[in-house]
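Students often ask why we bother encoding 3D structure as a string. The short answer is that it lets us treat folding as translation between two languages. Here is a chain of 540 residues written in the first language.
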Amino acid sequence: MIEILPKFIKNSLNQNDNKDNLIEVIMDLGRRPEARFPDGPIYLSNKVINWIDLDQCIKGVGNFTEENRAGIERTLHRISCVRNREGNIVGLTCRVGRAVFGTINIIKDLLENNGSILLLGKPGVGKTTAIREIARVLADEMEKRVIIIDTSNEIAGDGDIPHRSIGKARRMQVSQPEFQYKVMIEAVENHMPEVIIIDEIGTEQETFAARTISERGVQLIGTAHGNYLESLIRNPSLSDLVGGIQYVTLGDEEAKRRGTQKSIIERKATPAFKVAVEIHERYSWVVHENIADSVDQILQGLNPITQIRSFYGSEKTIIKKFQSSNYAEQYYKESQTNDRLANYDKLSTMLPFNSYASHLKEPKVKSKIGLQKNVCSLYTFGLSYQYMEKLFGKFEIPIELTRSLGQANTILGLRAQIKNNKKILYIAKNQDKKVFTVGNNSLNEILRTLNFILQFYSYDTIQYDTYSESKYEDQLEVQEEVRIAIEKIVIPTKNIVELLPRTSIMRNIQYQLISKYALKAKLVGKEPNKRIRIYPNCTK
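And here it is in the second language, the structure alphabet:
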């Protein structure tokens, strides 16, 4: 590539000790030529580029396509041009193409599993170099029938004879970029490949063709622009590569069982690719071993479990498993920060206020307790946050109540809802959060469980017996409970009914009301679960 450059640029590059690491040379009309290296750009001369310099370079390359790309025959270098309104070339980007052997050893085991692989990454990170090496390994070492759909002659170089870096793999050229999807289908129908390699899937037609090829049982290796799998899901043109998404409306019972809203987003179909590889750095790749599972977890608001594979020089590949929304940052900082946990606050299904909640005193202002060892930060699930807040204020419970699941180290919720909610259980297991449950939202049940939590964190327990017999218990509520039980159940259906556990004072009030209905009642259970059982007249 250096041979086609003007002499003053060629001499400057030859004198540079870092020439072997050159990425590209930029030549813009009226500006100084610039060379870009991994550690930053440098100017190659104080002389500015003129028309003669540009023409000299253009004569040394092939014809420019509709994508304004050209190449040097039987090389991997790419020359791209910038045109003005009249169509004249006013700038060139001369990019160095390299065949780097051994780069895909990091994912060689995935190739041997015959699964389709999708490579993701920003421009210039090494996707094309990777699939070039993948083509050689599949064709030469694994002896498979490999066909490359080379739209811009980037994989196998310019000219009719492909570059030797692709090994025995065959290359099909594309006359115009918009016809790439047709060539993809043609390759399957005419040449019976075992593997098809596609660079830069970017349109809906190419996505559809990729799905068609995958359904015919051909192994696919492709690339797409996007830093993360999540960005591909949000891209309407490319989302079908990972199965696509659709809105689904659940019935009331199903939404309650799942613990979600009635309208949810689900994966629409089976992904065209089995494995996704995110290339964030040349020597650090993030692997989604099962795209279907990762997409499902992302749509549910969870962080997919991924592998981070790294290699340095001749060292062995290092594989680490992480669960985070920013995988590259997770690898370098080794941080356990979870960015999505705030979204889980929406999962909480709050129950209506108990009538006696309004009689509780407003909570006293307490200083926030930070998350530290032996300090309890409580997230409630299925229980009214406002009621719990007043309860904590009344008894001065030394626990921090939080609306954010991410800030909590303890979860308290209704047993039936916790048991049927896989998301909460998944988060609790992976984030090492303690889970406590209550059978119902009665005051005694909640206070008894809170005492157990206080003992677990070595706090002093609370005394609530005196409160239970205090004036804050609403007598009207107790009488209303008896009235509804008798008039709606005992008398019409002739069934036995057990009332909720109450204090001795409240039970006396209930007995007085039951006697007015001329019904029999019996005290059952032990404290603090003593309760009244009401019998219909027909029962002995």
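Translate back mentally: The first strand starts at residue 24 and ends at 28. Keep this in mind for the problem set.
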